[in-house]
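Structure ticket #2291
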Amino acid sequence: MRYVWILCLPAIGVTGCKRESCVGQDRTCELGPVCPNLEPVCGPTGRSPGFTRARRLTAAEISVGPDALGAVGDFALENDRVRAVVDAIDHPHHLAAHGGALIDLELPGIAEDGLNVVLQATGLLPKDAVTYTSAWIVESRGASAIELRGHLDGDEEESVATRYEIRPCESGIRVKTEIVNLGKDPEVWTVTDGWFWGARSLEPFVPKPDRGFVHPSFGLTDIDSVFTDSDFVAATPEVSDAASYAIVACDRTQLSGFHSDKVSAVGSPRRIVMPGDRVVLERFIAVAPGGRSIAPAVDLALDARGKLFDERLRTVTGLLLRADGAPASLVTGTVRISEIGEDGRTPWTHVRPDSDGRFIASVPSGKALVAEAQAFGKTLSEVPIPAGENAFDLGTLTLPAAARVDLRVLVDDVEDHALAFFVPADEDTEAQGSKLFGAVSTRCAPLLGPPNGPSPACNRVLVRGLTSVVVPPGKYRVLATGGPFATIDESELAVSSGETSVVELSIQRLALGARPFLSADFHVHGARSFDSSIPDRDRVASFLAADLDVLIATDHDVVTDYSESLRALDGQDQLRLISGVETTALVLFDLVKDEAVPKVIGHYNFWPVQVDPTGPWRGSLFDERMEPGALFEEFRSSKIGAAGVIQLNHPYAEAEFGRDLGFPKAIGLDARRPLDEDAEDKRQLTRAPPGRSVSNLAYDAQEVMNGSDNGALQAYRAFWFYLLNEGVVRAGTGNSDSHGLTDNLVGTPRTLVWTATSKESFDLFAFNAAVKAGQMIGTNGPIIEAVISSPTSSRTPSLQAFIPDPNAQLSITVSAAPWVPIDEVRVIVNGSVARLLTSELTHPVDPLGREGLVRYSGSIPLSSILPSAGDAWIVVEAGSAIPMAGDLDCDGIPDTGDNDGNAVVDWRDADDNDDEPDPCEGDTGPLATAPHPRDAGDPLSKFQAVTPRSYPFGFTNPFIIDRNGDGFEGASR
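Resolution: structure written out below.
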């Protein structure tokens, strides 16, 4: 056994003298018991004899919930209420480079797991993360535990020990972490739990003035300004089946940390830790049912604090009714209870009533409070709660009756899957838009349901047959869509409180394009992604409503199988579902030579990947701290084979919480300079990583379009063009990157693949071969059919180079649904517009009709657009004019739009500061999306009603012109 005796040291913030501490790998040294002063926290049903046990998971014990990550070989703790899973050392997840993190915490039979990961660290940098090297089970009287030993990632002399402990009947687990400074220098540490919420999943809640579900934005440079202390931290999901959580410190009265919708870090205050000293954090992590806002988790947190610190609490009860007697939902009726103070209102809890309208919630005693009755994200009435110790009954709170719309959509004259939008028809209705709980996530007008949950979500409703929707009073345009290749239908209505309106809409699928194609989306997320909450049934219904033929399921770092939901919806004949994965680098490391800031490599899609329902990552691979070429080699050799597809995703998307989402942006590629330049960014882009044989450029396809709003289209397009000019030929795709019903529309954009296989007799190998060959277009509406032909040959876009006939013609036909406006057709040669067609286009008279599908059909002599000599490439585009953009950081990639509307892109579009920065040194972004038309008669108005903030765009893959037959070498070479 190895002990460290903590000495008394005269340093600021140093505590603890002559206390025994567990370090090293000796299993006879135990950290328990954890939180010894905490009486059992057994929740509202009281204490029961119960049981506890710890074990390694077997295949038969794997949870099936969408967020459950536990796999065979992971550690499980269980009592009569709770099950927790800690990942094995070699099964790390998400932000953790090594196992030993809490990945699942559920109430079996009551609330599914909703966690992503909870891991330990002492700071923000990669070296501050805890690396566990061993783990084992400890059984003792009255408790079961998992003990882990390790060190900080940046220094093996900084010893770490953690104990996860479960006791009978408790609605949670106890955790103790101890870190000992065995080095020679003082350190500034905190013991922190990093809670990876992921966004669009769990919503964190902090009881602080003007906070609750609201969290200030911050970056790494100003993170100190958002550190705060709180009595507890809680989190709730937007779906009713998942659990909610709370954390309370046992060895101190406050938790210190920072919070966002993506991550919270909470634990002990930062302090100086001298050599030989230690820091310790003991905490209770509670789990409660979700679906009723944050109240069940807060109740457990306050119960624990009462037992630990002798704090008194009181209950608030009441009856919340709507005037029409209907039960309240998470949107149509909740109660927020806040403390009134000099610094603003401090939210303490937020509760949704039971089906009969009754509610009960715990709050601290002795505080003057106010209860706010909310509906559709708005506070409609307030009732004061005087300071006191006893339970307080609010009586009956009455909300106005909502309106109801009974909606029916026919698709090709039968009831089928469709998506409906409720769009405000006047300014007063638009002004009623709000956020979930008045604070969370996306602003919706109207707010029909939690934006990241099932239908209805935000202002969108999945429809199949008669569907009833509760809406706030107002004037609306209700539109139905069946994807970009069907008509849309629209109805206007005014709804009042207590009234029921009937809306019947009819849409038809359109025969667009002369050549048959398979309509596909290669980038889609569901509930198994850390940043999505949409249930599988709703997710698959959205696929069917979008009228897709092929869909690749690409959840973050986990493989998904939707086949059960597809069968339940009778969709097997309509859609071919392929399992894949989006590798999502999250663990920062020294990626770029001589770069002080650690990086990650961004995101890539791989398919097909076989689902392993009981294995780590459900069949995917560990993908952290490696360059792309190494990742490609691993997947090719063990998962997708030579015939599988690798796709570079959103190469220039904005970073999220310090993590780049695209590799070329992460390495700081300068696209103004040639690829064969002797520069580190070019070498890193093109090389095989050390010890590997596969290049970082060895992917098959790149997203040119990602996301429904086209926000970063110009950056992705510019990078694709740059590579083509440099002779690097990769297929271009268009994908939605949809995470639910609200963020991006699944299937918008999409990729149309021309292939010999069909949906009825689908051959995945043939389909993937066509994708890798570039036999496809990307689009959110326009369909472009382009052919280079001569009397002796005919070529369609693909990555195969050819020598054109001197008399060849480029023939172009562009078609679209009538509600998709097409203002111009562009012929791009070597990155520049060689021919712009505008007056030659025709435009439909009725955007809701079925006529006027073909907008342009014509031919152009190839010789009139090609350079006189050298290789070349041609891409055809159609849609709206490309918005103005500039390159303010001087890397050759557009980064900023004309955001102030003065027809000039400069530093003022990115920075409100009056001081002009040095060239290439100031802020950038964002790229501009299309402005929303004020005139409902504008052709873009219908398009944006069902494709918000976007503009029509479609593109072909390139024609590769090899002038001399000696191989394509890039533009004009």
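Closing remark: The chain has six domains: 3-12+49-307, 312-399, 403-507, 581-780, 782-882+932-973, 884-928.
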